[in-house]
Amino acid sequence: MDIVYDKYFDRIYSWALKKTNNKEDAEDLTNNIFLALFEYFNKNISIAKLDNLIWKIAHNIWSLKAQTYIKEKNNITLDNITPTYTENYLDKIIYKDIIANLTNIGLTKKEFLSFKLYYCNDLSIKEISIKLNSSESNIKYYLYSARCKVKERYNE
């Protein structure tokens, strides 16, 4: 098991870090993968291709983690939520109020859609990038540009 750990740790950890975008979650995911491998090795089952087994276990553990995260996210009740009144929260309220006037501001189609999906539909930048078939950095730019145009219009 030590040989497998030494050989695969860096690759599995890098993969987990890309999947989770979070160092702590990547460490947990990597540990869970190696724990599952250890349990599999203790069953004394013959292994045809070690590489295939490792990545299959990694995929299965990641899928279970993603399913758990989605279930937890969907089971949030109003009692568990404490409202946060930050500048971003207030901006969303203001932007929702002025969304009807966006066509008069001169936003491009991508700026308008990004702005509307982000502030009215509360989609994440990643979700918007998928929906509009554009990169996340482009969506960030569209939102920035739209906010600048809106602020310029309402500061007149």
Provide an overview of this structure:
The protein is mainly alpha-helical and 156 residues long. The model is unreliable at 76-87 (pLDDT under 50). Helices cover 72% and strands 0% of the residues. The chain starts with a helix and ends with a helix. The chain folds into two domains: 2-78, RNA polymerase sigma factor, region 2, helix turn helix motif (Rna Polymerase Sigma Factor, Chain: A), CATH 1.10.1740; 87-154, Orthogonal Bundle (Arc Repressor Mutant, subunit A).
Helices and strands, with pairings:
Layout (H helix, E strand, L loop, with lengths): L1 H19 L2 H20 L7 H25 L12 H12 L10 H11 L5 H7 L4 H19 L2
What characteristics describe this protein?
mainly alpha; Rna Polymerase Sigma Factor, Chain: A; Arc Repressor Mutant, subunit A; 7 helices; 72% helix
Number of strands: 0
Domain tally? 2
Under the CATH scheme, the architecture of the largest domain is: Orthogonal Bundle
> So how many helices?
7
- Low-confidence segments, given as residue ranges, are 76-87
CATH class term of the largest domain: Mainly Alpha
Mean pLDDT: 77
CATH topology of the largest domain: Rna Polymerase Sigma Factor, Chain: A
Termini distance?
A: 68 Å
Quick recap:
This protein starts with a helix and ends with a helix. Helix content is 72%, strand content 0%. The protein is mostly helical and 156 residues long.
